[in-house]
Amino acid sequence: MKNELDTNLDFETRSLDTICVNDSQLEHKWYHNLKYVFVGALFGLVFIKAEIISWYRIQEMFRFQSFHMYGVIGSAVLVGIISVFLIKKFNIKTIYGETIVFHDKTFNKGQVIGGVLFGLGWAITGACPGPIFAQIGTGVTVMIVTLFFAILGTWVYGYFREKLPH
């Protein structure tokens, strides 16, 4: 029995798809997704308490006036590095028993262009994708406009993906 990894060896192209290589075909009841609501609410609460959603904190970061946001981002990167190391070292699997596979990525100029656009949008709006929802949840309803354009930008990228420099 061949799995998807055996039939599709173009991992770079595959990684751009919205379906994961380890996609699970399990069917679940509606309440199965409540755990994601709980984790999302907890994530938003942490964002609020850590002042990550504060427009003023974000502006301090881009003006190099405070270490706060750099400390938060740096600690997240450190946790990510340690997590990937442990997953690889102990061959940790998903909660459904699927193998976690990491693929090497090649560097290209499109990543620099995308990073600059992302940073400009972050500096102008005071939000990156995660905190947008927490900001809306705290009553900063003007962020609905930012959310709309973030979704629109994602759609535009998906539409022109094949023509962009990857």
Description:
The chain is mostly helical and 166 residues long. The protein has one domain (4-163). The protein contains eight helices and no strands. The protein has helices spanning 4-7, 11-16, 34-49, 55-62, 68-90, 109-125, 129-137, 143-160. α7 (129-137) runs antiparallel to α8. It is globular and about 45 Å long.
How many separate structural domains? 1
Annotation, overall tally of beta strands: 0
In terms of DSSP E residues, the strand content is under 5%
Mean pLDDT across residues? 84
Taking the sheet with the most strands, its summary is: none
Approximate helicity band:
55-70%
Secondary-structure class: mainly alpha
Describe the protein's topology.
Blueprint lengths: L3 H4 L3 H6 L17 H16 L5 H8 L5 H23 L18 H17 L3 H9 L5 H18 L6
Brief descriptors of the model:
166 residues, mainly alpha, 8 helices, globular
Summarize, please.
This protein is mostly helical and 166 residues long. It contains eight helices and no strands. It is 61% helix and 0% strand.
